[in-house]
Design brief:
Chain A: InterPro entries: Peptide/Ni-bd, SBP_5, SBP_5_dom, TAT_signal, TAT_signal_bac_arc. Chain A: Its main location: other. Chain A: One of its GO terms (cellular component) is outer membrane-bounded periplasmic space. The complex is a heterotrimer of chains A (about 575), B (about 300) and C (about 375). Chain A has about 575 residues and is an alpha+beta fold. Chain A has helices at about 20-25, 35-45, 75-85, 130-140, 165, 195-200, 210-215, 275-280, 295-300, 330-335, 340-350, 380-385, 385-400, 415-430, 445-455, 470-475, 490-500, 510-525, and strands at about 55-60, 90, 95-100, 100-105, 115-120, 180, 185-190, 235-240, 245-250, 265-270, 285-290, 305-315, 355, 405-415, 435-445, 460-465, 530-540, 545, 550, 560, 565. Chain A is about 30% helix and about 20% strand. Chain B is built from twelve helices and no strands. Chain B is globular, with a radius of gyration of 24 Å. The model of chain B is unreliable at about 305-310 (pLDDT under 50). With about 375 residues, chain C is mainly alpha-helical. Chain C has a domain at about 70-90 and about 155-360: MetI-like fold. Chain C is about 65% helix and about 5% strand. The chains are: A alpha+beta (about 575), B mainly alpha (about 300), C mainly alpha (about 375). Chains in contact: A-B, A-C, B-C. At the B-C interface, helix 1, helix 5, helix 6, helix 7 and helix 9 of B face helix 6, helix 7, helix 8, helix 11 and helix 12 of C.
């Protein structure tokens, strides 16, 4: 219900220059167009110099976990950090990386050296933003003493030279492949070419930290307006750790200050969605998140919108640990018995869209520029709701296993949406498959994740957000031995394809690789290794007085730099 | 009496230490870990455990914690508010819980006592029935429903009070939460006062007092209430601690930055230091109040010999 | 009047025995047969039966003379009957979903003709208030949900009574176990005092000093969630209040003459605690039991709120309220039935408790 929707937005999108946000919005229901439209008009109006000010009142679901860019891991913290800090690159309205502190950049021919040329920008204490600030920030991220949870952004995903060794404690932090050539030139060395590297730069783990200032704060860094420095559109005016209300104001020293229309941002943490909507109705809030039940109340309201959250929710059967679930026909029976339209349309109602692929749509774009999973009917024959097929497979499974009835336990997060989904899933399976019983075990999310990782479950309801803009961020999960292959499923053909696409010949053959990935995806769905359910969206209210707020399904969820508010 | 007081204080300290140990053991039993996410690799988790010393044996962790605690260091939060000292979290949040809880206790105790006394004096009349109904509603409607109804009516419809807690208007924005919080206390106190008062009013010494010509408020307050107070205090004391340490539900609905909602989040996200720190504060307050209550017994009712040990 | 007669009767019998003994005492030498059993079991049993019957009969009379107590009892009986038979009164099951019939407002055959409970609801939306009737819109005119249906299209009538059943079982079981444990603990601690009291109270402080939520949550996380675990969790944490009451009462009574008298006559400690003191404090104990019933229901409701209550799709009154809470501003009719049933249940337990308390209090009887 209203608990711990502390969404850890570990997932982030490295959508190299792709208009993914617009796609995400379209998928999240018809009403989303209003935001896309207003965001476009907002950008236009502010560019035309007709900006309107005011303070935006924003509802948050959870408190900020940390304002230290290298320590923070959740979406709320990232959003606030990005309000007052600019990285080398920034997210534009479509989620593409555009230059920010870096005015220009060069990429070497082998794609392994990036040179960023920094613009004249200032920290709020008057110091210039220099290349050394980035070096210090990045070194903090990989320093084992800091144990930054997102250090893998530099090592596994960013492939920065020596990052992995430094994290493992094998080399000193100074060996990291990033150097300040001079005050305004930053050079980054990569192990291998990383096509989405630029889009990593708007991710807060890569943000600069002023070393001299940091040393004056040390342990208190990021705990109050006096212990953070701003180089972004806003600056912190009132904050304390775990505050439920805090404010930012426009930063007059921001290099792009002329384009920032708002006077400030006022955040308010409200964990009860009904209170939040009432506050919104009284005008105390300009933006608020809704609960699926409240959609009935607002669905005719033009201010209602649905925003992609970037997660695929799916069910993972423990194939290795439960003998019955090793039976493919039983698994197929289950996936065919799931009516995903009913789950999203009748119960969630927040705009979440049914998903019939193992890789959700809207983040991975192929060589031809099209979305990897745009065609949701491609594998529908393997999983789309079909009661007759389900019963057919169920009968086969029954005779193969010599059993007439099955009882399984499904572990579910103690949050509102998963519990709702689980109850419908239970009902659908038990209605369609005679003699099938699904019991639900509701646990706090941390415990549920651990149970899945330990193999201590029969069936699990879980989710996954993309790490980078390639289908591999999903398909890589089901290779033999991967820690997120909860069901311990193993298939030699599948492993071979994935291997070929990661390190084999297909690496250099984008079209061939793409086709091979579809083959791999088909194996996952055909053998019902997972039962995909839906792509998550959040229902939000955005006041009609507000335009130009950029919503992104991942990384920085909301960006206010271009926003305006009319009185 | 002095000896007894000293002894009680010393044992209270030992009790606190025992509680701390139990809390530590409980944390070990807790399933899950503070660093748990789909994307965290085992290596990274090990690094985080090492960073916070969670890889050490429990007795080392315990003694280190006690040592640090004596220096006023309660450790840092692991994931609710990363690396923030627990003492800082408590400093900023506990006063708010105490303030809202204090308002609720005062309101609940006063209204409850008045209702209870009235009901007892006018037993089996309309007054009694009304008091009963009010107190029954108080104990039977869950506080979150009550809070939301209050908020909807007085915050949203009539706009008399703010719907959300605000640091700028602490008193005004505490009115609705305090009322919602006080309902249960008020009802409990009212019922208990009524039941105790009736017993006292029916007792022989009240008859005696009456026959000596004492009447009116003196009779009720000096003779009746004084005797009814002992069990009432017994009931009230733990309620005070409960309210002062914040309520998850009411804090959540009115967006109050108190410690109640923090504890629940901490338990769910295995933020050990926050759970231990907040629980310990709770325990200390609880034991402190129990100590006061025990000592008060002797003052209110001299018949109770506290130093029973040397009887 | 009746009481006086009995007491007089008792006194005169005693007098008669005393004088008879006096008469015999003067010059009697004991013989073997003097110590033979008298074989008057019949008379003895008649005596105890007489006494017992009298006390309970009077208690019963007093109880039934109190209208509010009777009303409470009737309510409890009605709710219990509905909890037993209610879920079977229509064709729905407590977990059966029909997503095509979700969020239907209450509609009762017969009453609907008067314009109420006819399945229409007034919904306040952000764009204004609108009146809808899902039965007509979805063309389900032959369908009736007496209390409406929830967001999964489950019948709220069935779920309310199913929830009442679960809540009653949990609350009564927890309250009785609490009473047994807490009462014994408090009485023993209070009676013996001194070192025993000191140790027992410190143990209690440790047990109670840890926030309830921490213990209960942990227990529910470690054990298999379900009704028995919840009862166990409530039992572990709720006995403390009872023991405090029992101890406080014991402290009030232990120095009184009747205890002293009993002890002088050679009664053992446990006899005094459970036979002499206990009957005198049954009033506060019952009041406290009646308090632990709502507390138990509440704690369960709170656990549901935290997501650790009775596992879905099973329900208790508490879990229903916390589940339907989300529809409070959207479809308020959904949350009303469980709240009303819960309040009525509380009210009736309180009324019965009051009645019982006054009926059973031996001090009141003797006056």
């Amino acid at each position: 219900m209203r608990f711990d929707r502390r969404i850890s937005r570990r997932s982030f999108l490295a959508a190299a220059g792709v208009a993914s946000a617009a796609l995400a919005l379209t998928a999240c229901g018809g009403s989303s167009s209003s935001v896309a439209a207003s965001s476009a008009s907002g950008t236009a109006s502010s560019a035309a110099g007709t900006a309107q000010g005011g303070t935006l009142n924003i509802m948050l679901e959870t408190e900020v976990q940390s304002l230290d860019p290298q320590i923070a891991t959740d979406g709320t913290s990232f959003e606030v950090i990005a309000d007052y800090t600019d990285g080398l690159m920034q997210m534009d309205a479509d989620g593409a990386a555009v230059p920010a502190i870096a005015e220009t950049y060069d990429i070497s021919e082998d794609g392994k050296t990036y040179t960023f040329h920094l613009r004249e920008a200032k920290w709020s204490n008057g110091d210039a933003v220099t290349a050394a600030d980035f070096v210090f920030g990045w070194q903090r991220a990989v320093d084992p003493a800091n144990a930054s949870e997102y250090s893998y952004m530099l090592s596994d995903i960013g492939q920065v030279v020596n990052a992995a060794e430094i994290i493992a404690g094998e080399k000193p932090v100074t060996d990291l492949g990033v150097t300040a050539v001079d005050d305004k030139t930053l050079e980054v060395q990569l192990n291998v070419p990383v096509s989405y590297f630029l889009s990593l730069m708007y991710f807060p783990t890569f943000y600069p930290v002023n070393e001299a200032f940091f040393n004056t704060c040390k342990d208190t860094f990021g705990t109050s307006p006096d212990t953070v420095l701003s180089n972004g559109a806003f600056k912190l005016t009132d904050y304390q750790p775990a505050a439920t209300a805090f404010t930012l104001e426009k930063n007059p020293d921001y290099y792009d200050a002329a384009k920032v229309a708002l006077d400030g941002l006022a955040y308010q943490v409200i964990k009860d969605s009904q209170q939040a909507l009432m506050s919104y109705q009284t005008g105390a809030l300009d933006m608020t998140l809704l609960n699926g039940e409240q959609v009935d109340q607002v669905k005719d309201d033009p201010e209602f919108t649905s925003v992609g959250a970037g997660y695929l929710w799916y069910i993972s059967p423990n194939i290795d640990g439960v003998p019955e679930l090793a039976n493919e026909n039983l698994r197929k029976a289950i996936t065919f018995a799931l009516d995903r339209d009913a789950i999203t349309g009748d119960v969630l109602k927040d705009g979440s869209a049914p998903c019939y692929t193992a890789v959700p749509p809207q983040f991975a774009t192929g060589p031809d520029g099209s979305d990897f999973s745009a065609d949701q009917t491609k594998f529908a024959e393997f999983c789309a709701y079909d009661a007759d097929k389900a019963k057919e497979y169920y009968e086969q499974a029954k005779s193969e296993l010599g059993k007439d009835s099955f009882t399984f336990n499904m572990v579910v997060d103690a949050d509102d949406a998963p519990q709702k989904v689980a109850q419908v899933v239970k009902e659908q399976l038990e209605t369609t498959l005679a003699g099938f019983t699904l019991n639900l075990t509701v646990e706090p999310k941390k415990q549920r994740v651990q149970d899945l990782q330990d193999g201590n479950f029969e069936i699990g309801l879980t989710r996954w957000g993309p790490d980078y803009a390639d289908p591999m961020t999903y398909l890589g999960m089901w290779v033999t031995g991967n820690s997120n292959n909860y069901g311990l499923w193993s298939d030699a053909d599948y492993d071979a394809i994935i291997d070929e696409c990661t390190t084999g010949d297909l690496c250099t053959d984008p079209e061939g690789r793409w086709a091979a990935l579809y083959e791999a995806e088909q194996i996952v769905l055909e053998q019902a290794v997972i039962f995909p359910l839906y792509g998550q969206c959040n229902a939000e209210m955005v006041s009609s007085a507000v335009t130009g707020v950029d919503f992104h399904p991942v990384a920085l969820n909301r960006v206010y730099k271009n926003a305006t508010k009319s009185e | 009496m002095k000896k007894y007081t000293l002894k009680r204080i010393l044992t209270s300290l030992f009790t606190l230490l025992a509680i701390l140990l139990v809390l530590f053991i409980l944390m070990q039993l807790m399933p899950g870990s503070p660093f748990n996410d789909e994307k965290l690799t085992p290596d990274m988790r090990a690094a985080l455990y090492a960073k916070y010393g969670l890889d050490q044996p429990i007795y080392i962790q315990f003694f280190r914690y006690v040592g640090n605690m004596l220096r006023g260091d309660l450790g840092v939060s692991y994931n609710i508010s990363k690396n923030t000292p627990i003492s800082q979290l408590i400093q900023s949040r506990l006063p708010i819980s105490i303030q809202v809880g204090g308002m609720a206790v005062t309101l609940g105790a006063i209204v409850g006592l008045v209702l209870g006394i009235l009901a007892a004096l006018k037993r089996d009349t309309v007054v009694d029935t009304i008091a009963t109904i009010i107190s029954v509603i108080g104990v039977s409607v869950p506080s979150y429903v009550f809070a939301l109804a209050l908020s909807y009516t007085f915050g949203f419809k009539f706009r008399w009070f703010p719907m959300l807690f605000s640091a700028k208007d602490i008193f005004g924005s505490s009115v609705l939460p305090s009322i919602s919080l006080s309902m249960f206390t008020m009802a409990s106190i009212a019922r208990f006062t009524r039941s105790e008062m009736i017993e006292v009013l029916d007792s022989d010494y009240m008859l005696l007092a009456e026959s000596k010509g004492i009447s009116g408020p003196a009779l009720i307050f000096r003779h009746a209430l004084r005797n009814a107070l002992i069990p009432i205090i017994t009931v009230l004391a733990p309620l005070i601690v409960d309210l002062m340490t914040g309520s998850l539900v009411v804090e959540k609905i009115f967006a109050i930055p108190g410690v109640g909602s923090l504890l629940v989040t901490a338990i769910q996200s295995n933020d050990y230091n926050v759970v231990i720190g907040l629980s310990f504060i709770y325990s200390a307050m609880y034991i402190g109040i129990m100590l006061v209550v025990d000592l008060l017994y002797g003052i209110i009712d001299p018949r109770i010999r506290l130093a029973k040990g040397d009887d | 009047m009746a009481e006086k007669a009995i007491r007089l009767g008792g006194e005169s019998t005693a007098d008669a025995i005393v004088s008879a003994v006096d008469a015999m005492y003067t010059e009697h030498t004991f013989a073997e047969k003097d110590f033979a059993l008298k074989h008057n079991e019949d008379e003895i049993s008649v005596d105890t039966n007489f006494a017992a019957q009298n006390f309970w009969k009077e208690a019963l009379i007093r109880f039934f003379n109190k209208k509010s107590a009777v009303l409470g009892l009737v309510l409890i009986v009605v709710i219990v009957l509905l909890a037993v038979f209610g879920p079977g009164m229509n064709s729905y099951t407590y977990s059966g979903q029909d997503l095509s019939q979700k969020n239907f407002a209450p509609r009762v055959p017969g009453i609907e003709q008067f314009g109420i409970l006819d399945g229409s609801e007034k919904m306040s939306t952000t764009t204004g208030t609108k009146v809808t009737n899902a039965y007509q819109e979805k063309d389900k005119l032959d369908v009736y949900y007496w209390f409406g249906s929830d967001l999964y299209g489950r019948d709220i009538w069935t779920r309310t009574w199913e929830g009442a059943r679960v809540s009653l079982i949990i609350a009564v079981a927890a309250a009785i176990i609490d009473m047994l444990i807490g009462m014994s603990y408090g009485l023993i601690s209070g009676y013996f005092g001194g070192r025993v009291d000191m140790v027992m109270q410190r143990f209690l402080e440790v047990a109670n000093g840890i926030p309830r939520l921490v213990i209960v949550t942990l227990l529910l996380l470690v054990l298999q969630p379900g009704m028995v675990t919840i009862i166990f969790a409530l039992m572990l944490t709720e006995w403390v209040g009872m023991s405090r009451i029992a101890r406080a009462e014991m402290l009030k009574l232990k120095d009184q003459e009747f205890v002293l008298a009993s002890r002088t006559l050679g009664a053992g400690s446990f006899f005094i605690i459970f036979k002499e003191v206990l009957p005198n404090i049954i009033g506060p104990i019952i009041t406290q039991v009646m308090f632990s019933i709502p507390t138990a229901i509440f704690t369960e409701a709170f656990l549901s709120f935290v997501g650790l209550g009775i596992p879905v799709p099973q329900c208790s009154l508490g879990s229903l309220i916390s589940e339907l809470y989300n529809s409070f501003t959207t479809h308020p009719y959904q949350i009303i039935p469980p709240i009303v049933v819960m309040s009525l249940l509380m009210l009736s337990f309180n009324l019965v408790a009051d009645g019982l308390r006054e009926a059973l209090d031996p001090k009141m009887k003797s006056m």
